Amino acid sequence: MMLNIRNMFLIAIVLLKNTFKLWLSINLWTEKMSRETQKICPRCGEPYRWIYRENIHGRSYLYAVHEYIDENGRKRRRKCYLGPEGNYEYVSATHDLEFYGLTKEDRYIRYLEEIIDLFDVDEPVPTDPEEFKKEFENIMRTKSLVKKISYKIDERLRKIIETIISDIEASIDLLKRDYPDNPQAQEILKELSKFDDELERSNLIKSFRILKEDVLRTYIERYLLLKNRLKIYNL
């Protein structure tokens, strides 16, 4: 009975990880594009000028350097600590996970993968009543957390798809209005309109939960390719 619960849990969490990877890869791309153009500090959320590396005992520690004008009109600088370039060696040594600084954009995926590795289905189930009850309750509690995370990921994916649809429609309207005589713009407009029709026919806003990952990725990749072509129009 306990092994069945464990197997069901592992299957659920692996599926969750795949969905989480898709969501995070989209989020990281948009966040990276934003930070590359605006240089937004991941710690304080304010613009920064550059990343400063401080080398101590053979390790590099990263800081976002901010510049601002104080009340006396003088240029000042302040730094936000972003963590080591790599993992936190001392903190990680006392845990079962490798912890990373804020510049490690895929750190949440790494944490999830390491947490999954901690679950061993072949580990013997304790027969001591107290230990048995504790393990069962921990598994059921984790299973409940998986459901909550899955719900939040689905909602975030829905929000991402809503953003794609609204962005495509806004881009179509702008190209029609501002570039009616531009052949290149009109060519992109045709592709946008075709993509918009496909999104509407597929009812992606409702069907994304049952689509295979590779199909959903195809929509995302097409959107990103179109967005790259729209950069010349500041879209």
Write the layout of secondary structure elements.
Layout: H1 2-38, E1 50-56, E2 59-69, E3 75-84, H2 89-93, H3 107-118, H4 129-178, H5 183-202, H6 204-207, H7 213-229
Antiparallel strand pairs: 1-2, 2-3
DSSP strand tally: 3
Shape: flat
The major β-sheet equals:
3 strands, antiparallel
> Strand content of the residues, in percent?
5-15%
**Low-pLDDT residue spans:** 1-5
Biggest sheet: strand arrangement: 1-2-3
Total of DSSP H or I helical runs spanning 4+ residues: 7
**Secondary-structure element string:** HEEEHHHHHH
Mean pLDDT over the residues: 82
Label the structural class. mainly alpha
Helix content: 55-70%
Short description:
By secondary structure, the chain is mainly alpha-helical. It has seven helices and three strands, in the order αβββαααααα.
Describe the structure in your own words.
The protein has 235 residues and is mainly alpha-helical. The chain folds into two domains: 166 residues, no CATH class; 60 residues, no CATH class. The protein contains seven helices and three strands; from the N terminus they run αβββαααααα. Strands 1-2-3 form a three-stranded antiparallel β-sheet, with no helix packed on it. Strand 2 and strand 3 form a beta hairpin.
Task: Give descriptors for this structure.
three-stranded antiparallel beta sheet; 3 strands; 235 residues; mainly alpha; single chain; flat; disordered N terminus; 2 domains; 12% strand
